[in-house]
Fold this protein.
Amino acid sequence: MSDTGHNVELKTERLLIRPFSPGDVHDVFEYAQDPEWGRFLPLPQPYTSKDAEVFVAGQVAEVRADRVAFAIELDGRVVGGINLTIDAAKGTAEMGYSVARNRWGQGLIPEAAREVVRWGFETQNLKKISAFADSRNKQSFRVMEKLGMTREGLSTKQAFIRGERVDNVFYGLLREDWEKQT
């Protein structure tokens, strides 16, 4: 594998997709304290400034060959994050993403995800990228479908979010299908 992303900056028309830095705490706290933003995520609620500090510090300190986490920056502010957990031996990765609620519906996650998917296939030599979402999170399904991902399955009551067992829906994108789109 080439550069694992810890020093990589990706750019799209509107976004800078870059490693997290210590200065991102305020921006992360601004969007993560919104309970609606974290409704489908296994995060503490209420989400405190200390939670944001711990999260950002963890992203900055975590240097693993199998995981890369990017901050999504728009107009100089972090408005979300996107990550890949890579299994180099299998040539696969699992993607996760989120964006501030006041940015929902603006196409930022599909834009960021397309660039991260491109980076994963082209520089990490991945064969497949997958993602999953809480079955109640229809917006996330739309993101995965916009990327050309195919719905692959349902895991019943496997996740535990705020005391409730929930279903997860899984999607995947094969490299050859991505190449047909580009």
About this structure: The chain has a mean pLDDT of 91.
